[in-house]
Amino acid sequence: MEKVAYLTIDDAPSSDFTAKLTFLQQQRIPAVFFCRGDLLAQQPEAAVRAVQLGYILGNHSYDHPSFSTISLAECQEQIRKTDAVLAAVYNRAGVPWQHKYFRFPYGDRGDLKLGHLLQGESARWKGSGPPSTRRWHRLAEQVRRFFPERVRQARTRGLAREAAIQHYLHALGYQFPPFLDITYSYLQAYQQEKDWPWTFDVLEWSLLQTPSWRGGHTLSSILARLEHPTPPDPRGPVPAAAYGLSFPGSAEIILLHDHAETSHAFYAVVERLLEQGIVFKACV
């Protein structure tokens, strides 16, 4: 049984964007590039070429703030500004903008959870995880225990913000396409949302962290993690008994990044995935 994956690449376009395009084209790998508006404005010709080659450019905000740390109006402005830049890119490319996709910076949906999917709110997301994740949950439980009213009020505000942002994305025509071959129940529950999540974060971005994120990732450990039967997820324990790139029962949405500083890891990861027999498919 083949393992299918949909490749998504955040924080484009970098100074290595054109080289990555050439590499993916040579390997016949489709991808969605989630682009920052400020970086698109610096490399409009490269973005136009990507669209003309058949790659999809998505909206990844204008300058990559954490949406829970800015006002609702600022969240909407981040989306709107990049929407306008992308519209100009597609118009210049002479290609209809048929697929409008959005991904939040850091996965932070503006709901005041700062990108953490798991805060002990749902039993299906509880379980074992890396020590740092378990510490986060213990702290969250203590806050809920001693300040229940403040937690309730914050969650109410967060839900209202989240709903308003989703409504704004819907009004602009953004969508999350149905992935019938992704069988994880937590993602199936996501189908009504208008932004893109992911199921597997490669974590090559952690090579930029000092000290390296949660225990010292290296390129070797990142490559080894691609074959881990149940790889830890920085968002929290995954609510599935079996998952990961070695799990044959579901397709995956893979998250990589277009960072010039980690381009060596980008190419190494894609090549390793091909060696593992991953079949990359277009999301449309």
Automatic annotation (TrEMBL):
GO biological process: carbohydrate metabolic process
GO terms of molecular function: hydrolase activity, acting on carbon-nitrogen (but not peptide) bonds; metal ion binding
UniProt keyword list: Hydrolase, Metal-binding
InterPro entries: Glyco_hydro/deAcase_b/a-brl, NODB_dom, Polysacc_deacetylase_ArnD
GO CC terms in record: membrane
Protein species of origin: Hymenobacter wooponensis
Keyword Cytoplasm: no
Record flagged with keyword Hydrolase: yes
Domain NodB homology, residue spans: 3-108
Source species, domain of life: Bacteria
Stated name of the protein: Polysaccharide deacetylase family protein
Cross-referenced SUPFAM superfamilies: Glycoside hydrolase/deacetylase
